[in-house]
Amino acid sequence: MTEEQVEKRDDNVVFIGKKPTIGYVLAVLTQLNQGVPEVLIKARGKQICKAVTVAELVRKRYLPEVQIKDIKIDTEELTTEDGKTVRVSAIEIVVGK
Amino acid sequence: MTEEQVEKRDDNVVFIGKKPTIGYVLAVLTQLNQGVPEVLIKARGKQICKAVTVAELVRKRYLPEVQIKDIKIDTEELTTEDGKTVRVSAIEIVVGK
Predict the structure, then answer these.
(1) Rounded-to-integer distance, Cα B94 and Cα B28, Å
(2) What is the ipTM of this complex?
(3) Mutating which of A49, A69, A94 best tests the B interface, going by the most B Cβ atoms within 10 A?
């Protein structure tokens, strides 16, 4: 039940990690083709540039009708395993038709 | 004369390169403190995350009255030394009071 709710909530979010760029591009394309009106691409730290590339590939190479709806930047505080707080930059890019 | 014009044109632009982040933060702060209303932070490729950090440090740590005015992402085509064309993601962040 909880798992299903979490999955549903994250339906229109693609969190950029360390995997190759194309996988995240496909994740965004899949959601848009399934009828989700907008997808939120989120990334932190060094993955921010990958998030930008994912958004650019989606709209320039694969789905020309898709536009950048919103871009926000922020600073997030993370707690490391030894209890220290580190600040890391983050980006949120909303793409949609 | 031309050199002066170029300098004048680039007065409110900080291009993010490979140097440490703090240098670019200081460049933005200097321009804002000299009375420039808005500064354009530009970066390509892997420097994009540094551009986000520079903007975040300027507004969250040093000048709380500064806001993010605009964020744009784009794809730029560069020609390498051997004549190949490569595409690279780019970001432009406008910060101002």
Answers:
(1) 11
(2) 0.85
(3) A49
Which of B30, B54, B50 minimizes the C-alpha distance to B90?
Answer: B50
Q: Please choose, from the candidates A45, A46, A40, A38, the residue with its C-alpha nearest in 3D space to the C-alpha of residue A93.
A: A40
Q: Answer whether B94 touches A (CB < 8 Å).
A: no
Residues in chain B: 97
CB atoms within 10 A of CB A79: 9
Greater confidence (A76 vs A10) lies with: A76
Strands of A67-79's sheet in order across: A13-15, A38-44, A85-96, A67-79
C-beta neighbour count of B31 within 10 angstroms = 19
pTM of the model: 0.87
According to the model, what pLDDT value does residue A10 have? 61
CB-based contact, B73 to chain A, within 8 Å: yes
